[in-house]
Structure formats: C-alpha cells, structure tokens
C-alpha cells in the first residue's frame, strides 16, 4: 500500500501549465482555446481549488521565484458562469463543441436555449483529475466548490448564482481503454 498526502490550494497563475495539462483532453482532443479557458479559471480568485501532493507546503506555495508551480498538481475544480464569459473565444468554442456532440435533437434544442438565451443562469462545473488520483478526493472537492460558490453569492457576486449546472466529466468504464468526455446536464429549480 502506498500512502500519499494531498493538500488543497486556491488557484494561482503559476498553476497555469499544470491546470492546462489536466484539461488537455477536456474536449476530446479538439483544438480550441484551452489557454484562454485556463486563464479564466485561474483569474477567478473566489471559486476554485487545486489539489497538490502533500510534500508542498504553504511556505513553498508562497515563494515566487517566477517559476511554475505545477509539480505535484493532481486535480482541480472550478465553476464558470457561461453568461459572464460568453464573449471569450474559449467559451464560444466550448458551447459549439457541446452542441456538436449532442446527437439527440430534442436535447440539443434545450441545450442551445441554455447556452444562448439562459447562459447567465448556467454554471459550468469543471472537475478534472489525473486517472491515478484517488476518487476519494472528489467529494471534498465538490464540497469546497459549493461552499465557495455559496460564499461568493453572499458577497454579492451574482454571476456565481446558478439555476442550471452544466457538468463535464470524463468517465472511464472498466471495459473501455480510452477516456471519453461525456456531458451531463443537472437541472435544479433554485440557485445554489
């Protein structure tokens, strides 16, 4: 048995390359503005968590020698309001991708309505982790994310008050060798 310690941190600009590495297959290897997407995630200081190996402490985190702090990055989570960032190229490309991969016409029509007319009520929940990262980290990541969204809405950040949650998740069934992105729509009748 191998024991590992993990720590949770706020996203920082120096995490750029590690987060980009985590998200490189986010849209099934499609070429898109991934750098812009990572920038949006890292610029959002009130919501989001980075998981790193436990051998990095807060003092190392505070040292800024200009280098990247990507070593030991295992997972990340964040939430982005699709209406707030609608003008960004990465969000336009993400919306286009979601509509392209949606094969059911009825679902595609509903999705298009959410992504275009109701975008300010849609939160994209981003959770990505390396395959060898323990699944037991996922529930605390979600708890932290929803706490952060709740605190942000209390602080009058209305762009983080979502009615609809769009969650992109990679699922790996045991019988399938490749990782495939599947999109899951979660509807709720009240904001988070």
TrEMBL record:
Domain of life, per lineage: Eukaryota
InterPro entries per the UniProt record, alphabetical: BCP1_family
TM helices/strands, residue ranges: none
Any one GO cellular component localisation term in the record: nucleus
Family that this chain belongs to: Belongs to the BCP1 family.
Name this polypeptide is given: Protein BCCIP homolog
Annotated source species: Cocos nucifera (Coconut palm)
């Amino acid at each position: 048995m191998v024991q590992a310690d993990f720590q949770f941190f706020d996203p920082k600009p120096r995490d750029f390359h590690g987060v980009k590495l985590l998200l490189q297959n986010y849209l099934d290897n499609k070429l898109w503005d991934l750098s812009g997407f990572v920038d949006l995630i890292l610029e959002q200081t009130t919501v989001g968590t980075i998981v790193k190996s436990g051998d990095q402490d807060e003092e190392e985190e505070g040292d800024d020698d200009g280098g990247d702090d990507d070593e030991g990055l295992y997972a990340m989570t964040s939430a982005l309001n699709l209406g707030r960032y609608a003008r960004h190229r990465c969000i336009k490309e993400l919306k286009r991708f979601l509509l392209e991969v949606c094969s059911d016409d009825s679902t595609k029509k509903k999705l298009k309505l959410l992504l275009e007319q109701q975008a300010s009520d849609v939160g994209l929940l981003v959770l990505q982790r390396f395959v060898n990262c323990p699944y037991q980290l996922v529930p605390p990541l979600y708890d932290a994310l929803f706490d952060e969204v709740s605190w942000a809405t209390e602080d009058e950040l209305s762009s983080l008050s979502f009615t609809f949650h769009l969650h992109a998740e990679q699922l790996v069934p045991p019988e399938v060798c490749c990782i495939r992105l599947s999109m899951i729509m979660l509807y709720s009748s009240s904001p988070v």
